[in-house]
Design a protein that fits this description.
2 domains, protease, Cytidine Deaminase, domain 2, single chain, 5-stranded mixed sheet, elongated, 224 residues
Length: 224
């Protein structure tokens, strides 16, 4: 069935306009992005097939170019468009943080970091430097490691925080395995960083572990 054969209230574009984007399923959102289907398959059916083959939206959005193009009806044009949309979303969230949402909106921080660290195959350690009002000054990836671990040096973190004249910091690192649960090593290095930064009166507001679509907050766990 073609999308034009559906009742107006069931067509993705019309549904978005009347009910808002949040009312649409993953397949319906992708259908708007795809615009058209392929022979014998409308845009919604095509989206549902690809979501099933890719085992969900997160895996599809994180797919490399070659893997993405293996899906029927997909190609370089759609891949570049989708990557551009993801980057626009990441920059929007970063702008929100820069406009003082920062730590006063923990969910905004988590959303931004999920996009920033999504799909990375190597572990990285990222620091958000904030001022006394918890407004974002800068974001830096200070360390990169193997797929298993990243070496984090407290002295380098202190130097970077002083360079930015930060009043506080938020740490984040990813687990390429997709499991966001903090390890014992994560807890140990966090304690060392808190001690080192405490010597120069810089607070650690949180340490977030990002795994896939999930985030675990040290602050919410009472681990700081």
């Amino acid at each position: 069935m073609r999308l034009t054969d559906l009742p107006a209230q069931q067509r993705p574009r019309e549904k978005l306009l009347t009910q808002g984007a949040g009312a649409l399923s993953d397949a319906e959102l992708l259908a708007i992005f795809f615009r058209t289907g392929i022979a014998g398959c409308n845009a919604i059916d095509l989206a549902q097939q690809i979501l099933s083959q890719s085992q969900g939206l997160h895996t599809l959005l994180a797919a490399e170019h070659d893997h993405f193009c293996r899906f029927k009806g997909m190609g370089t044009a759609k891949y570049t468009q989708l990557q551009a949309a993801i980057e626009l979303a990441r920059r929007y969230l970063q702008t929100s943080l820069e406009r003082a949402l920062s730590f006063d909106s923990p969910q905004a921080v988590q959303d931004y970091l999920k996009l920033e660290l999504k799909g990375l195959q190597r572990e990285v350690f990222l620091v958000l430097f904030v001022d006394a009002q918890h407004r974002l000054i800068s974001t830096e990836t200070l360390f990169q490691g193997t797929i298993d671990a990243a070496s984090v040096y407290p002295r380098e973190v202190v130097k970077a925080a002083l360079k930015h004249n930060a009043a506080a910091v938020i740490f984040a690192h990813n687990h390429p395995s997709g499991i966001a649960e903090p390890s014992q090593a994560d807890e140990v290095i966090t304690r060392k960083l808190i001690q080192a930064l405490g010597l120069v009166d810089i607070r650690v507001l949180d340490h977030l572990v990002i795994g896939g679509c999930h985030a675990v907050s040290f602050a919410e766990r009472g681990l700081l």
